[in-house]
Amino acid sequence: MPSSSSKRGRLLWLYAATTLLALLSSAIFHSAPSRAQTEVKLDTKASGTMKTPLMLARFRADGPVGSLPSQGRAIARKDFELSGVFNVGDVEPLEGKPVADPTLTGTVRVEGKVEQGQSASFFQFRGQAIDVGTGEIALDRTYPFTDASLRETMHRFVDDVLEALTGERGVAETKIAYVQQNGREKEIWMMDYDGENPRQVTHDRSLSLSPTWAPWGTEIAFTTFKRGNPDLYLFDLTRGASYPFSTRPGLNTAPCYSPDGKWIALTLSRDGNSEVYLVSRDAQSAKRLTRNTVIDTSPSFSPTGREIVFTSNRTGSPQVFVMDAEGLNQRLLTIEGSYNDSPQWSPKGDKITYAARHDGIFDVIVMDANGNNPIQITSNAGHNENPHWSADGRKIVFSSSREGKRQIFVMNADGSDVVRLTQGSESFNPSWGPRPKSRLTVRGEASGGKGPG
Amino acid sequence: MRLTTRMSFATLFGLALVLALAPGCASRKRVTPEANVPPPETESTAPAPPEKEEAQPPVETSTERLALQDAFFDFDDYSLRQDAKSALEKDGKYLEKNSRTRIVIEGHCDERGSVEYNLALGEKRARAAKDYLVSYGIPTSRLTTISYGKERPFETGHDEDAWAKNRRAHVVSK
How far does the CA of residue B71 sit from the closest CA of chain A (Å)? Predict the structure, then answer.
């Protein structure tokens, strides 16, 4: 690790230089949009105007590997594009060793080769990422796989490339939970981050809503009416089964785990009015955080776990408020608009996204965590609601009615590169899962995720 | 015992009437402790009552038909409008006459806004209707509430007509 840090540092610097160049040119050639002001940050946030050129070589084959190279490459290509970090172009594979090309400083080249493994259905993928300007190899890694695990292998490779080049892994290995409606029934579903492999999680034939991921990635908390009352259940993805967590009279809604996983913030109305509570994950203790006669709901922890952002209508309409995790120091955050809801804190802690209603339309806003600089990142495309950050903070998933029925979409955190993930039945309430903690966990999740039946 | 409850019904009903007749009085206020709350946003541009016609309960006929009625609400609001109070008073009468009937008050919302906020809003609407019936004299033990938020709409349209019908406390006998 330490030996590669100088290499990574240089690449980071290159990346920063290209993004600065791109930013400057966009500022010169376009009449500098006001949002650019908040984006002069040389980090690796996804953006439509600051992308690293990536030359993706045709993957080579060694032995009887059939169409695996082209299949794998298609998956990797989509991953690189969805990362929001790269502009992907297609090239032929390198002949011989990479050579420095200073005319292409800041460009990345990715090579791949699929080889036959020791027996029939076992293969190896060798992937390389090359800094074209210096000719240095930033990543060179071999991944054993079977034809059943090609997709997840490619996702892992792309996240490895992103980590090697930017210091921050991508989210190609993550999942998104959401709600799908069929007739009067609403069930929890999940899919890969790119919309592939949609599968039903709950089979309660009831109303199941507001899924949210445990930080360890194998549990989803959600509200279900299956016993008549809006109760909070936990779904264990490793076992494919759910069990009740909070079944107090009235609302048990809007769950959010603390970053350490020890608490679940949620809305209870057992006092006759919706209030934000913390209930310990072992269900042994409950703390009431809000205390008034109005609506308080939709809590979301800061990544440090020290603060909670939430929705309250104590000023007469829903607005985004913040408080300490003990419930103290409650204060209004949103400075614009008459209707702001569904706040979610970014994984780096610097931003908060929420949905605002303006002129009868809902749109996604991103603001600084102190409430300053609210920027509307969706527009003129139906209602856009329920924004939720990806684990790397580069992307936001949300629901939109831009094509009629509500569907799940993703975009870069500045609103660029909108991609639809779901189709068919009405889908909403997306929640982006954490990165997998270990390979073992991933396997457990994959087998449990298929659910019963 | 029975006599005193009757009397308290009468007093409360009288009080409700007085409140109703006093224009712009406490009846239009939100249930918030803060006094200077802006008026609730209504989707129609009409600034003043009477409320939208779609939301009006049917006009009472001479042969006073007693059946359970729903209370309707303005957008993002859970204060009881005059028509909602009239509907609930009819429910109160019905429950007085049918003293063994227990009811569920379901809070419902229109499709706009988040799942979570609307579940809380529906809860507020159901509770507001329940509180009104309790103050009318119906024992709490006969009244339960549940919120469906925006998840069980009565009308599936996407216009003010449908929305007005979906913003309600739906009163059903158990």
Answer: 19
pLDDT for A443 equals: 34
Contact B114/A186, CB-based, under 8 Å?
no
- Residue A13 has a pLDDT of 52
Q: Does residue A353 carry a pLDDT above 80?
A: yes
Q: What is the pLDDT of residues A405-419, one digit of tens each?
A: 999 999 999 999 999
Number of domains forming the structure of chain B: 1
Q: Is the pTM of this model over 0.90?
A: no
pLDDT reading at A404 higher than 60:
yes
* Domain A2-166 fold: Rossmann fold (3.40.50)
pLDDT in tens, A166-180: 999 999 999 999 999
B93 Cβ under 8 Å from any chain A Cβ: no
B123 touches chain A (CB under 8 A): yes
Domain ranges of chain A: 2-166, 175-449
| Closest CB to B114 among A296, A313, A341 | A341
pLDDT band of residue B67 (cuts 50, 70, 90) is confident
For residue B119, the chain A residues in CB contact (below 8 A) are 209, 223, 230, 251, 253-254, 267, 297
Q: Does B117 touch chain A (CB under 8 A)?
A: yes
Closest residue on chain B to A296 (Cα): B120
Lookup result for tokens 């299956």: A226
